[in-house]
Amino acid sequence: MTITNVSLDGVTQGHRRIEVGTRREDGRPEEDGSDGFERFGWGPPLLDDEASAFISDAFQRDDAFLLGRHTYEIFAGSWGAGMDPGNPVGAALNTRHKYVASTTLRAPQWANTTVLSGDVESAIRELRAEPGGELQVWGSGTLMCWLLDHRLVDEIVLLISPVIVGQGRRLFPATGADIGLELVAWRSTPKGLTIHTYRTTGRPRYETGST
User: Which of 135, 157, 180, 206 pairs with 65 at a CA distance of 20 to 30 A?
Assistant: First the structure.
């Protein structure tokens, strides 16, 4: 299951401003506006009690986390560093296993972390086959799209904020996998955030032209 905060115009960048000193590696821009993005923190003003309860409940269902390196480093530098002690989100992240899809991460310091750096696709298929609770992907937009390309996602949860950010990285690239979706749950919160849960159904069906 992937769970992603996204604006109405598809932006995922800068949902929160968390100062964790993330490093720039492999040409990847830092989350500090150095790539021209300046509109950090568009998500929290629209987060109400109902949305927060949904997020907390989702974390409690999780059996393990699968994260991209950038999201992992943000979580490790905030929740892993003791931010907001007693918060159920932090409790889940600190006590449950975390798998990081990365070819560059070395010797992670956060407890219960495994780096997937070899045959990542096979490793994830093995994780998906294990019995137990959910394997959740939070944020990690690049990883999410890679998983979709490899047909490794069963459910997609989008927390869509009623805001047009107008700049920043979008969730879906201009070209990618074509995937059919079935809406299995939908709800809105008092501040207008909508939560959509989709089940993937393989490739979509296309209208055939008349001959």
Answer: 180
- Mean pLDDT of the residues in the chain: 87
Mapping DSSP onto H, E and C, the string for 109-140 reads CCCCEEEECCCHHHHHHHHHHCCCCEEEEECC
- Sheet containing 113-116: give its strands across: 113-116, 97-101, 62-68, 134-138, 2-7, 155-161, 194-200, 181-188
Per-residue pLDDT at 29: 33
CA pair distance 35, 168, nearest whole angstrom: 9
Do 6 and 161 meet the contact criterion of CB atoms below 8 Å apart? yes
pLDDT more than 90, % of the chain: 65
Q: Tell the burial category of 14 from Cβ atoms under 10 Å away from its Cβ (0-12, 13-18, 19+).
A: buried
